[in-house]
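Crash report, auto-generated. Payload:
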Amino acid sequence: MQANQIPEIDPKKVADMIFTLGEFGAHSGTGVWRTAFSEQWVAAQDCIAGWSREAGLEVRFDAAGNLWARAEGTEGGDAIVSGSHIDSQCPGGRYDGALGVLSALIAITALKDAFGPPRKPLELVSLCEEEGSRFPTAGFWGSRAIVGRVRPGDCDNTVDISGISIGTAMANAGFDPAQISQAVRDDIAAFIELHIEQGPFLEDADLPVAVVNAITHIRQTKVKLTGQSNHAGAFPMDIRCDPMAGFAEAVTTVIDHANALGRPAVTTVGKCSVDPGGSAIIPSSVTFTIDARHPDPKAALELYKTHDIMLSDIAARRGLSVETEILLDLPPCLSDPTFLQAMDRAAQAASIATMHMASGAGHDAQQMAEICPVAMIFVRSEDGRSHTPEEFSTIEDIVAGIKVLAGTLYQLAY
Amino acid sequence: MQANQIPEIDPKKVADMIFTLGEFGAHSGTGVWRTAFSEQWVAAQDCIAGWSREAGLEVRFDAAGNLWARAEGTEGGDAIVSGSHIDSQCPGGRYDGALGVLSALIAITALKDAFGPPRKPLELVSLCEEEGSRFPTAGFWGSRAIVGRVRPGDCDNTVDISGISIGTAMANAGFDPAQISQAVRDDIAAFIELHIEQGPFLEDADLPVAVVNAITHIRQTKVKLTGQSNHAGAFPMDIRCDPMAGFAEAVTTVIDHANALGRPAVTTVGKCSVDPGGSAIIPSSVTFTIDARHPDPKAALELYKTHDIMLSDIAARRGLSVETEILLDLPPCLSDPTFLQAMDRAAQAASIATMHMASGAGHDAQQMAEICPVAMIFVRSEDGRSHTPEEFSTIEDIVAGIKVLAGTLYQLAY
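Recovered output after restart:
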């Protein structure tokens, strides 16, 4: 591997591509609303396919809806892959996901132009339905299909808010759900994903780019506390079994616990519903989610165990019953150490100051880790914003991220 | 006034009438679903009108939908009125409201049969849409119309969940919304309402009947706490402005405060919504209701002031903004002391053990207090249940309540 080959990156071309792609599904001024298999998303994928062909890459769509663009390797072998997704939140920004796809295309094109064909195959991938913003249970759809984690029946059973199945949406966009198992790949040697940070760590550190050494363990648990509904006026406080009081204690307890643990532990209660939900009725039950994350495998399990103990204690003490269901459980994903070294060398060669950090958000790289070693690069987010039209990263920071990516791909593929 | 005249009450007739009325809108086995101006409600009102005519009472419906049945007084003057409502929750039980209407009819009939026509006019009223269960903003519709608290435009602006205005519903049931101001009464000398307790105090005290000395102050406040939405994974705990954390502290604080004050203070958070409400998103805002009640006028105002201070403190300390809006404010309603004495005498004459207590629930009597002195009688509720098909009171307790009512009406009207 050679460290010191960083191709030139044209900031104007980067800006042009970001703004051109942002026109597909443009929303709320600076945002996009571009859900998987929608007209806007299909047109955006086609746009990237067109740019890839212009760059001399071999373009194909797989059965799941992922777009692949390949520079063949002179020595063959397993592919070095980079990419992310262009589906968005409703609405989201121009950068979340899309920046990773464009950066991979720009980096691969620049490498080819500067250094000719790679030794190993070098591929761009634009993955399908990372967000789960159209099909809530289909997050990481494209990367799950690649690693063989789409189950039989998923195409029929996975539906959007209007009741359309993902299989129907795929068929409408020209993909054959019956062929989805053909999206599986077993010939990938590395997956490198560039993404906006979506948090404030780089801004705090006054750095443009981070090398991501791990993706956090993410567990989302649905909790239902059940008590006894009664009249808000006629039923005295001292004999109530009020699940709202238990819920409030649970929220305070888990949030205070994450604060006490300190960074990088995070715990969020973002969703709750009250039954029956009348202002003059003591609720019979409160159902809510706890999203708790820690990138250290041991600390994460300790955190979840502590939550279980806390919930049981609160319920027992208050005469409530508690039911829990794990909705999502993504174990931590550690980056490949040799990739981290390659990224550090690339950053040094490009004179870009970086830091190492864990990702608190989930990413396609977590899925791809099932079939190959992975690592990620973060680009600074203004005010740490994401999942909003307001998300923003400067072209200078983005170019710095692309240089680290290109230098890393050079070491892996040339 | 004479104290010792309690007419005989036939338990079998009481039971028959309860079960016959319960057939109109029968629901969930032992419950009813009988909303204002529905087919079931109109038929139930007609049933009571029929029974009233059989009892020799002069029956009429007013423009608001209230049913009146009158025994003329030999000496004329302002009327002594008793009644309640037969509209229900969705579903509710057979007793909430309906028992007060039936008890008034049974008591007035028994008094007439035993003692002939009263000196003062004696009237039964079956009030319309007390619950607000069909038209959420039309609670106490019938009693508000009687006291002149229905505003111009209310008939058009008040709509049910399917968008039908209360004016249209009235017209469909044969009432003329343009005439609603004619429902106003200025010739009522007393309003006595019998109701199930809806709480556990009588059961705790092992007593069948209570004399209600006050109806609590009820204030419902909508509170919105606004913070800063961010990514649940990428945004660290220590710099969050999480309105969910503030909401939890607010719930705990107001509930703990009511517990510390002790009976009869009650505070309930029965309703909340989270925006945007994603399990992986720190909320931007949480909106909830605080229902807080105290029957003592001074203590109630002190309670509300304390809540305001608590909310401001929590918001300021956590960097949240707070908005509050009073949705409902029903000042406490003190019973007329001479009526309380009459009730005590009636109970003594009938050898019924009673206690004095405040009502924690709102009732039509609170509205009627605008135009005349009022008082209430409570009948024991099994397990303190109400607003459910499971609500239940024994025929023995109900007969005891009717005897206290009849003895009270005797003192006021004979």
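Post-recovery validation: Chain A touches chain B through 63 residues (CB under 8 Å).
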